[in-house]
Amino acid sequence: MKKVILASASPRRAMLLHNLGLDFVIVPADIDESILPDEKPVDAVMRIAQAKAQSASNHPDSIVIAADTVVVCKGQALGKPADDREALTMLSLLSGAEHQVITGLSVLNTATGQGEAGYELTRVYFRELEDDEIKAYIASGEPADKAGAYGVQGRAAVFVAGIDGCYYNVVGLPLSRLYLMLKRQGLYLLESGIGERVQDQGSP
């Protein structure tokens, strides 16, 4: 079976892959994740996810999984907050508003050089947040390494009034889309034992 590499240091993405029963190695991608001037958010996350996957392309006979997530609210693309002040600005913008969580996803087969990229978009609706709620959440330290300054799987769950689309995309990895992409690269997660399908050699 091919080695599976997660080209990400995100503990949320690692947790989701562990929940699928997938054995993998973490190889964080050391690349510039900045959105380029005038670049559309969808184009940005797709480009960055593919760059992360390529950063691990020197690992032989492997399947590389890479992703990048951005939150878009009122035309503004929100990545990870640089500090508490920026987290406050982001959460104040999200308060009482609809926003989109967009994750670019890339799967690369290093043995063949073939891969696939796609993206998932989920709409999330926040209720109106009180100032003391925002400040208390920031004080918890949870917003620090998360796009949009919140983690839906953590304490920020109480901010969410509704979700339209893939929940796991909001956590950081759209699992249904990932499953189909891995399947097209020959990695089957739902068969007896996780691994590559053995092709039939003629009639039984």
Q: How would you describe the overall organization of this protein?
A:
β3 and β4 form a beta hairpin. The chain is of the alpha+beta class and 204 residues long. The chain has one domain (3-195): Maf protein (Alpha-Beta Complex). Strands 1, 2, 3, 4, 5, 6 and 7 form a 7-stranded mixed sheet that branches. It has helices spanning 11-19, 41-55, 84-94, 131-139, 167-171, 175-184; strands at residues 3-6, 25-26, 62-73, 76-78, 98-109, 114-126, 160-164, 187-188, 195-196.
State the order of secondary-structure elements, H for helix, E for strand. Answer: EHEHEEHEEHEHHEE
Count of alpha and pi helical runs: 6
The share of residues in extended strands comes to 25-35%
Radius of gyration: 18 Å
Number of strand elements:
9
How many domains comprise the coordinates? 1
Biggest beta sheet attributes: 7 strands, mixed
CATH class: Alpha Beta
The average pLDDT score comes to 91
Choose one word for the global shape.
elongated
Question: CA-to-CA gap between the ends?
Answer: 24 Å
The helix content is 25-40%
Poorly predicted sequence stretches spanning 5 or more consecutive residues: 197-204
Structural class: alpha+beta
CATH architectural category: Alpha-Beta Complex
Might you state the CATH topology name? Maf protein
Summed up:
The chain is α+β, with helices and mostly antiparallel strands and 204 residues long.
